[in-house]
Amino acid sequence: MEENLKDKLFNKKENGWEETDSKEREEILNFSNGYIEFLNKSKTEREVITNARKIAEENGFKDIMYFESLKPGDKVYFVNRDKSMYLAIIGTENIENGIHIIGSHVDSPRLDLKPNPLYEDGGFAYFKTHYYGGIKKYQWTTIPLSIHGVLVKANGEKITVNIGEDENDPIFTITDLLPHLAQDQMEKKLKTGIEGENLNLLIGSIPYGGEKETEKVKLNIMKILNEKYGITEKDFLSSELELVPAFKARSLGFDNSMVASYGQDDRICAYTSLMAMMNVQNVKNTAVCILSDKEEIGSMGNTGMESHMFDFFVSEILNKMGINRPNLLDRVFCFSKMLSSDVDAGFDPIYASVSDRNNAAFLGRGVGLNKYTGARGKSGASDANAEFVAWVRNVLETNDIKYQISELGKVDVGGGGTIAYILANKGVDVIDCGVPVLSMHAPYEVTSKYDIYCAFRTYKAFWQA
Ligand code: MN
Ligand code: MN
Fold it and tell me: What is the model's pTM?
């Protein structure tokens, strides 16, 4: 019998931590500290973009509108309505031979305020909410929530709101029924135990004014908001206010090996790709980083990936390079490559029954690639071509980066999607490539610091390939 035949022939799936030395562990932990810090300042798509723009400018990127012409080495960005962003480093290679794109999304599941949110009932003031993205509603009750976003007055004046994060701020919460009286509720299915229409945020309880007034608690809240922000009730009509968990991103485990935080889907890929872009130099193919919005609700709208804003950005690059001509954009896309950088479902031993162990992504085994997503018979999937998967494997293997190629779950259990298909529609070669997550879409999601660092290294290697 040949020795080590298994080592030679099998696809060994190992825990990445085992191979790390103390120097590498320190690098991994340091990188995650930066990520945790970023998460704590970036709880909405607008906050991510504000902070990403700051980081880009500190690293020499400039708004593409400031450039009259572009040449290799130039670093540009474009911010779309404060909610999505594209960055690029112009490469030395002829751009007609394609660009290298990494695309993540910066919106996360949350509760939005309704256009007419404020009401009073039973001596309490409340905000009505409308949930955004795929949430398990019961997870959003009895946790501290903060309010982030903007109100825009009819005259255009924009008021930025961020309340519930500072230790001295009040927080808000959605109440749930005491178990003593919850017999009927407990018989319901998890899906209907908490109804969307009952996700009402508790915001105050002191009445204002004399006995003749009605809605005194609501009035008192409106008075406080008027003094603090200069707004009236009508200004909610033109606002985007989002409720997000008020707790902080933290290291998880006695060994500090994991990160627990709200919004890791998909700020984990947004942060790692942004950091990778800040750390690459002299790229051959033009490197493009997409931070998109609205992925959690289907990528529609002019800040979502379905809009033509990205085409506009790439066309602007071609214009400013002085080479644009009819159909050139199509040609560029046809020869382009992309990592759709979105999170993957991590294998959870407690819920092992939904996964096929041989085809699941495990935390700590490196960056996770999905050749395809979709549901049932791959419905809605963008299935990456084997030739392109091989090309990506080569980049990872040459750079000694740990990776796993997996599926979201068992065949008939469910499914999901990312922005991959949208770029594939333009002719780009795309594969999903991100970080495995536990408790995806919950107020507190869990990831491995090992995989976070692998994602960063993967994105860097992809752009430098
Ligand atoms: Mn996602
Ligand atoms: Mn998601």
Answer: 0.97
Dihedral sign, CA of 453, 458, 459, 460?
A: positive
List residues, by chain if needed, whose CB lies under 5 Å from ion ligand 1: 265-266, 342
The domain limits of the chain are: 2-108+262-464, 110-245
293-339 pLDDT per residue, tens? 999 999 999 999 999 999 999 999 999 999 999 999 999 999 999 99
Note residues around ion ligand 2 (Cβ under 5 angstroms). 265
What is the rounded CA–CA span in Å between residue 61 and residue 53? Answer: 9
CATH architecture of 2-108+262-464: 3-Layer(aba) Sandwich (3.40)
Which CATH code is given to the segment(s) 110-245? 2.30.250.10
Residue 377's alpha-carbon distances to 290, 327, 344, 352, in angstroms, are 29, 35, 19, 21
- Predicted pLDDT at 316: 98
DSSP state of 250: E
State whether residue 71 is helix, strand or coil: coil
Compute, in angstroms, the gap from residue 342 CA to the centroid of ligand 1.
5
| Closest ligand to the CA of 104 | 1
**Distance (Å, rounded) from C-alpha 460 to C-alpha 296?**
26
Please give the pLDDT value at position 300. 96
Ligand nearest to the CA of residue 432, numbered in listed order: 1
Distance 272 CA to ligand 1 centre (A): 14
Measured in Å, residue 296 CA sits from the centre of ligand 2 at 5
Specify the pLDDT at position 193. 96
pLDDT at position 213 is 83
| CB 275, CB 452: distance < 8 Å | no
Look up residue 167 and give its two tokens. 């230790």
How far is residue 72's CA from residue 95's CA, in Å, rounded to a whole number? 10
Contact 184, 132 (CB under 8 A): no
Range 119-145 average pLDDT: 98
| Alpha carbon separation from 172 to 243, 422, 435, 448 (Å, rounded) | 9, 37, 31, 30
Unique residue bearing structure tokens 């066309």: 315
User: What separation in Å is there between the alpha carbon of 103 and the centre of ligand 2?
Assistant: 14
Q: CA-to-CA distance for 53 and 48, rounded, in angstroms? A: 8
Cα 108 to middle of ligand 2, angstroms: 7
